[in-house]
Amino acid sequence: MDEMKPDEMKPVETKPMDTNMDEFEGKLREQMRRVDAPARLQSRVMVRIREQERARASHVRMWSMAIAAALLLTVFAGAGLVLKQRHERQQAELARQQFEVAMRVTARSMSNVQRAIERAERKAEVGQ
């Protein structure tokens, strides 16, 4: 290896540690300094917030209306079933009453026929 001669050697500049820290802190402060927001940023942000609130309110109204419509359909369907069942019970009661009347008429007719047969039999016995 080549050795350096004393006259070729240059002194190395060293900075004290405090100077290096001061430079670092200065650069850090510069990077961290407060930066003002762009002009009209606040108004743009507030406009966007209002738009989002309107959209959210619109969605809430839409879902509320959809739920209300579903509930109304359920109520009307239930009412329709109740009315249908009531009508079927009334029809069944009417059919039962008509059957009872028909059975009474039939029983009376059968009784009349039975009496007519008995009279005819008595007449036939007397006429013999």
Order of helices and strands: HH
Relative strand content? under 5%
Using the alpha-carbon principal axes, give the shape.
rod-shaped
The average pLDDT value, as a whole number, equals 88
Q: Residue ranges: pLDDT <50 for 5 or more in a row?
A: none
Radius of gyration computed on alpha carbons: 55 Å
Tally of DSSP β-strands = 0
Task: Give the biggest beta sheet.
Answer: none
Number of helices: 2
Span between termini = 171 Å
Q: Which structural class is indicated by helix and strand composition?
A: mainly alpha
Overview of this protein structure:
The chain is mainly α and 128 residues long. The protein has a domain of 86 residues. The chain is 80% helix and 0% strand. The radius of gyration is 55 Å and the shape is rod-shaped. The termini are far apart.
Question: What can be said about this structure in brief?
Answer:
With 128 residues, this protein is an all-alpha fold. The protein is built from 2 helices and no strands.
What brief labels describe this structure?
128 residues; mainly alpha; 2 helices
Question: What is the element layout, followed by pairings?
Answer:
Elements: H1 17-32, H2 41-127
